Amino acid sequence: MILAVIGIVAISAEYSFAQEATAAADLTAVQEEVPVHQQLKKYFIEGGAGFMAAILLCLIFGLAVAIERIIYLNLATTNTKKLLANIETAINEQGIEAAKDVCRNTRGPVASIFYQGLDRYDQGLDVVEKSVTSYGSVQMSLMEKGLSWIGLFIAIGPMLGFLGTVVGMVQAFDAIEAAGDISPTVVAAGMKVALITTVGGLIVAIILQLFYNYILSKIDSIVISMEDASISLIDILVKAKK
Asked: Where are the domains of the chain?
């Protein structure tokens, strides 16, 4: 008799567990069927349209500036070894004017710096070296143009997220005060706003920080190449003087 009761209890427990597992599987399947863009739209609305729109604008503007800088820097990249070889050949065969034409027909900051130095060749090598150094600083400033805006959006994104967090907490406490109760359903809406805006702001900062660091590394690479090529240009001009 006792064994029969134990068997019935075990069967009932297994049946209940199977029902719970089936319900959980059905819920998971329903969640998986929801498209990603619909989920993002849902979180965007739940996070508060005002704060989430501001965070989204930071991402859009920051990406626009970052993509423009990446395109500019990629176009500014020059094969300095080939350029130096062409300049040296032009100087040896046709003179400084031919070398200036080579620089004029080559895009990028390195060619622009070389042109400024060659344009002052008749004033002496000291003047050439100073003009190359000075114009190198100008070109570096042009390459860094817009980075301050990316840094601004990196800082503003999390700040807006944290501001949304504070607003969400205030809403949660207002709901507690109005209901006179601290149940999870009362504070859930305010807490959701707080968490979603924080996540949104941090995601924006992470994405833009990756682009920012890539752009900085690209600028450093171009500047190193530019400085090395400038020294080689001075050496070429010294040989041409002899």
From this structure: 1-33, 36-242
Q: What is the Cα–Cα distance from 114 to 90, expressed in whole angstroms?
A: 13
Cα 170-174-179 angle, rounded to 5 deg: 150
Is the separation of the CB atoms in 73 and 226 below 8 Å?
Answer: no
- The tokens of 118 are what? 């060659």
CB 44 within 8 A of CB 150: no
Whether 105 contacts 78, CB under 8 Å: no
Q: What are phi and psi of 163, to 5 degrees?
A: -65, -40
Q: For the whole model, what pTM was predicted?
A: 0.72
Compute CA 242 distance to the chain's CA centroid, rounded to the nearest angstrom.
50
**Tell me, what amino acid is at 172?**
A
DSSP secondary structure letter of residue 179: H
- pLDDT digits over 136-183, tens only? 888 888 888 889 999 999 999 888 888 877 777 777 767 666 766 666
Q: Which stretch of DSSP H or E encloses residue 21?
A: helix 2-33
State the number of CA atoms in the 13 A half-sphere of 85 facing the CB.
5
DSSP codes of every residue in 83-135: HHHHHHHHHHHT-HHHHHHHHHTS-SHHHHHHHHHHHTGGG-HHHHHHHHHHH
